[in-house]
């Protein structure tokens, strides 16, 4: 089957649009976070169900880092590439007892996470490079593994509030995936219904911008219109013949 000139042009334009889209996505890249040594994440069972908390038996409290006077912090350094080229220290600041994980699926080791107040993220001196409010949405610790990940599902969880890199993010904010390393394969589901604790080590994470849905929609619309045009031209040619 021979392709018409219009069909060939259509394919070229579609491929070009795709490559431009991929190139733009790669050019953005992101910021890699590396935790300082001995940065801990503590998980504590919330006890058995009670009248005041009828779901306590399915919950685990989470503490990020070291706490002082009710304020907990995780610290480390960041390094950005592409549109986020930068380097500097970062901190995650949360309130003690403000983060709760609720079991969603014991077989998969998935949890939903909620906070009574946002976790403050600062990158650079006092957030000079980037600052925002972080709401961890999920946690996964696959059975028989030593690793755990916050926001593994790739949902937007960081609302940008300032910093010189803020303009490089979309209006949807960012996705901050945070990694935890446990000392054993013991799963945190064993904490349910108890008040015992287990400790993991915060190793770092990856911050990327939330994809702008409108850009992908425009690409699909443009590609669809070009393909339709090619098909109509071919049909017209065949009818004339």
Description:
The protein is built from 2 helices and 15 strands. By secondary structure, it is of the alpha+beta class. The radius of gyration is 24 Å and the shape is elongated. The protein has an 8-stranded antiparallel β-barrel with strand order 2-3-7-8-11-12-14-15. Strand 11 and strand 12 form a beta hairpin. It has 2 domains: 181 residues; 31 residues.
Task: Looking at this protein, list some descriptive labels.
241 residues; elongated; single chain; 8-stranded antiparallel β-barrel; alpha+beta; 15 strands; 2 helices; 2 domains
Give a topology summary.
Blueprint lengths: L4 H24 L2 E5 L4 E6 L13 E6 L1 E3 L2 E10 L5 E10 L3 E7 L4 E6 L3 E5 L6 E5 L3 E3 L6 E4 L7 E5 L11 E9 L14 E13 L3 H28 L1
Antiparallel strand pairs: 1-5, 1-15, 2-3, 2-15, 3-7, 4-5, 5-6, 6-9, 7-8, 8-11, 9-10, 10-13, 11-12, 12-14, 14-15
Task: Give a concise summary.
The protein has 241 residues and is of the alpha+beta class. It has helices spanning 5-28, 213-240, and strands at 31-35, 40-45, 59-64, 66-68, 71-80, 86-95, 99-105, 110-115, 119-123, 130-134, 138-140, 147-150, 158-162, 174-182, 197-209.
Q: Tell me the number of helical segments per DSSP (H or I, 4 or more residues long).
A: 2
Which structural class best describes the helix and strand composition?
alpha+beta
Number of strands: 15
Global Rg? 24 Å
Mean pLDDT: 84
């Amino acid at each position: 089957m021979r392709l018409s000139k219009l069909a060939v042009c259509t394919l070229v334009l579609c491929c070009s649009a795709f490559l431009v889209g991929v190139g733009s996505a790669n050019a953005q890249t992101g910021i890699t976070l590396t935790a300082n040594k001995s940065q801990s994440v503590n998980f504590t069972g919330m006890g058995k169900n009670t009248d005041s908390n009828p779901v306590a038996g399915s919950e685990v409290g989470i503490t990020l880092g070291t706490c002082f006077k009710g304020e907990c912090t995780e610290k480390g350094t960041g390094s950005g590439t592409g549109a986020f080229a930068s380097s500097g220290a970062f901190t995650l600041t949360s309130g003690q007892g403000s983060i709760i994980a609720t079991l969603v699926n014991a077989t998969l080791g998935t949890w939903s996470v909620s906070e009574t107040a946002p976790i403050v993220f600062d990158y650079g001196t006092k957030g000079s490079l980037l600052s925002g409010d972080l709401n961890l949405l999920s946690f996964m610790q696959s059975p028989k593994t030593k690793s755990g990940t916050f926001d593994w599902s790739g949902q937007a969880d960081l609302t940008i509030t300032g910093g010189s890199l803020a303009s490089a993010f979309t209006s949807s904010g960012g996705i901050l995936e945070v990694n935890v390393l446990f000392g054993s394969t013991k799963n945190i589901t064993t904490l349910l219904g108890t008040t015992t604790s287990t400790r993991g080590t915060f190793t770092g994470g990856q911050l990327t911008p939330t994809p702008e849905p409108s850009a992908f929609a425009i690409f699909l619309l443009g590609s669809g219109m070009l393909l339709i045009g090619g098909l109509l031209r071919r049909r017209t040619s065949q009818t004339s013949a």
